[in-house]
Predict the structure.
Amino acid sequence: MFSPIGTFFKTIFMPILLAGVLFYMLNPIVKGLTRVKIGRFKLNRTWSVAIVFLVLLGLLSGGLVWLVPRLIQQVGTLVNNVPKIVHIIQSSLNTMNQHLSHYKWLQNVDFQSYANQLEKGLSTYAQSFMTGLTTSVGTVIGMATSVTIVAITVPVMLFYMLKDGPKLMPAIRRLLPPKHADQTMDLLTKMSQTLSRYIGGQMIECLFVMTFTSIGFTLIGAKYGLLLGIFAGMCNIIPYVGPYIGVLPAVIVAFGTGLVQVISVLVVTVIVQQIDGNFVYPNVIGRSLKIHPLTIIVILLVAGNIAGLMGMILGVPLYAVVKVIVEYIYHIWMLQSEQKNHQSDKPQSDS
């Protein structure tokens, strides 16, 4: 009985999520354009949204024409070179095992077994990846259909969100009891501001890491620098854990070139992450969320076990919204308590 309801929410979840993220990224730009005056002509919201869409479409078209062929080439080359990379890593581990076998406390460590497991795991993954692309035609067609549907519905949703966004709050206000309308609207505004700061800041942060990591990898001559830099930037959306996940493929690939390349990859990653952590993150996102690092780690562990990768991505913003709600309700409760105490003390002071 509930299966159609679950299918409905599963179908609209991803388009609404993507459209919502893009809305919080582009809404400040649309607001800025509505304040622009060209002589006596002032851009209304519809024209502002149209201009933003045209610019975004041009950037996406140019980016896809330049980026997609290079990414496809690097992915294909990387998959074909996986056995070679694994063989080099295995040889390095064997050499390490010979050098470290002179130390008694490392004699019981079997580096050869770890190398065999790594070779088996990466080779199996590469073979299954290529087999899935070549044989699972139905799966590929189904995935392409889903991506096409999302690609069509998200721009439509985003257009109406940007165009009619200011009408949402007044429409909600009309549905609320007059007694609680002001408090509810204030709470919704705070929630929207929290999501806007987090989503916009995270996107800028990911683009920064993605761009400068790709440039750094290219400058040091790392193979697949563009692909690995984009992967590192995408992983950066996961707080604290993301940078370590993002650098792991680059380190594995760098082993195929040599120890100097591994050190160079780590140096580039550390420099980019230090600039991001000390300059970009404080200025873009700031400390407005006021979430302790230990709390974020706990959220990532719990959300990751509940919903996997999507839970790790959405766990922190959801926690931030819930935190805003709890703090606001507590603040209102404290004000009401103070008012009651003041009213109860007033007759005593008069007497």
